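[Meeting: bench + compute handoff]

Bench side (C.D.) handed over the final construct sequence. Compute side (W.E.) agreed to return the predicted structure before the next meeting so the bench team could plan truncations. Sequence as handed over:
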Amino acid sequence: MALCEAVASGSPLVWPRVLLFGDSITQFSFQQGGWGASLADMLVRKCDVLNRGFSGYNTRWAKIILPRLVRKGSGLDSPVAVTIFFGANDSALKDENPKQHVPLEEFVANLRSMVRYLRSVDVPEGRLILITPPPLCEAAWAQECLQQGCKLNRLNSVVGEYARACLQVAQDCGADALDLWTLMQKDGQDFSSYLSDGLHLSPKGNEFVFSHLWPLIEKKVSSLPFLLPYWRDIAEARPELSLLGDGDH
């Protein structure tokens, strides 16, 4: 009975959260070798990494659903970090893909709106990371479009306009930014190996994203404790003494 009472008296464990919000490049990031899966592995027993990626979505739709994903609660419920990773669909050409296309000015307004909303539910700019879309390999994506029975519906130069707009929003709002569009093309390198089909990330592309994103995430989670004690540190005779504390081990 005493042990049951002791167990019942343990305070609930607060498990911090990192929220990944984006389109298919986020949705697919939990696949084997994906950048989201790598983040989750690095943060195991420190915080949960939540995948809220929605394949095919643009910022027009993302802005609408964000309040359903993050609500105002206690400070302990608030994500310790949030990535906002859109633009690959917003930048689709209007004439070829009007459903996913979002005009550049609206794209900017939508990003600003999401940042404002997160601020209103106690997720300040210092916890945000805005990620630009990666560059588009037009030759590979043209083949993908051909297989789907449509014309090339994106251009890398247009994606670049949305990437620069994303960076400007981050700068104006005081949020961190990861400029994949520029980094993947640095020094004129061939970036096609970072993409599986010209648009989505290959295994190498996932490694690239993780390697550049992790330092930004690490800054925001470095103070988080390892939750619950290492097994060798658990008191053998009375384990509840070790396991019903605050988990700061």
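W.E. noted at the follow-up: The chain has one domain: 17-221. C.D. will use this when planning the next construct.
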